[in-house]
Amino acid sequence: MEQESELVTGEAVVLDVRAAKLASRGLAMMLDVALQLIALIVAMLVLSQVAVFGDEALALTLFLVTLVLIMVGYPVICETLSRGRTLGKMALGLRVVRTDGGPVRFRHALVRGLAGFFIDFWALGMLGVVAVVTSLLSPNGRRVGDYLAGTLVIRERMPAARTPYVGMPPQLAYWASQLDLTRLPNDLALAVRQYLGRTSELRPEAAEALGYGLAQQVAAAIGAPVPPGVPSWAYLSAVLAERRQRDQAKLQPAVQYGPPAVQSYPQPTAPAPVAQPQPPTEPAPENPFAPPG
């Protein structure tokens, strides 16, 4: 079960995210553990060949080192290189982030990996009991390693939020075309758009109160009070629709004006000379003195 949460960045920007809870995190953990167990089995088969030759102490030492590398190094390396994702988290669409919304670094991944091995899951975690209890008690599903590292696991694959279409009330079209909207702040316009998109999700009294407050802020910004008898939502819709129409008009390619192009006409050419008829030529008289044949 996931729920929406809010992260506040260092610049005081509020981010709406969906924190991953126990179900999705547990499935991702099972996939990671399966991969780790496969790696451990392969390592044991290789190290067993070392013990066959009689050096059991070396084989035990190598096994302990391999165990730590697989159980601690695997999540630390994966989360460091992929900015908060292991193979299991990739499959489930999860990512580890800082509580301010930023990407995790090596120190965060290392603290999470060590706490996961020694506290949450294996050494003292009684096979994950500590992690399960802590996650159930946390509003954002965080385990001990998340609290120590200052991290949070969120869902990346969320349905795309639909941008609500704000239409122009026909009765306010001419009135809105006369407004000066250059002083309307972008953050206030965004708040109005979000309000209009979630009006149906609010209780009527809450929607009316919130709409009235936003209408008063917009009226103070643009210097145009709400016309008498016009609801707050219609006033806000008219302002946003007119603002969108003007922004779209600015994006249209400008018409190029300039002197008309000079049209060239083909120059007249002299007529071809007419061939004069030649008088017919008569055959030359035969030479009577020419020798025969």
TrEMBL record:
Biased composition, class Pro residues, residue ranges: 268-293
Residues annotated as transmembrane: 27-51, 57-77, 114-137
Localization, UniProt: Membrane
Start and end residues of each RDD domain: 20-150
Residue span of region Disordered: 248-293
Bilayer topology annotation: Multi-pass membrane protein
One Pfam family in the UniProt entry: RDD
The entry's keywords: Membrane, Transmembrane, Transmembrane helix
GO cellular component term of the entry, any: membrane
Domain of life: Bacteria
Name by which UniProt lists this protein: Conserved putative membrane protein
Organism of this sequence: Amycolatopsis japonica
